[in-house]
Amino acid sequence: MPALPAPPGHHCCIHIDGSALPNPGPMSLGAVLRLPDGARHTLSRNLRRSGCNNEAELLALIAALREAQALGVHHITLRTDSSVLVEQLGGPGPRPTRPILRLEPLFAQARRLMGEFEEIRLQWIPRHRNQEADTLARAAHAQP
Description:
Blueprint: E1 12-20, E2 25-34, E3 40-51, H1 53-70, E4 75-80, H2 83-88, H3 104-114, E5 119-124, H4 131-140
Parallel strand pairs: 1-4, 4-5
Antiparallel strand pairs: 1-2, 2-3
């Protein structure tokens, strides 16, 4: 399988994943941020509340965007294996989805945060290309 195209050299590449085990159930998130200078930051967080996988994905996105802001990032290539997230936020996904009204406040929050960056490229990737973020999200379920 071909490698993913490299993001532009001035972009922070972020991989995110949210987990709800079972679905719905306790949620956790994982994210990997690779800055243009090669620095790497990770997030692995037990959210200590229950919800669905789509809610966990949104919370992972919001947490990663806040971390990117704290790090002074202005340009992002954001990769997720959630087609729902990509479709709802206006990016190209593998299939169209219907709006999830219950989660619209979180989608609105994510859109506001995304608007605070100079550039964001949102990309859907297959699950096997998002293993590190998935591993961080699943590991967070065991956090006390």
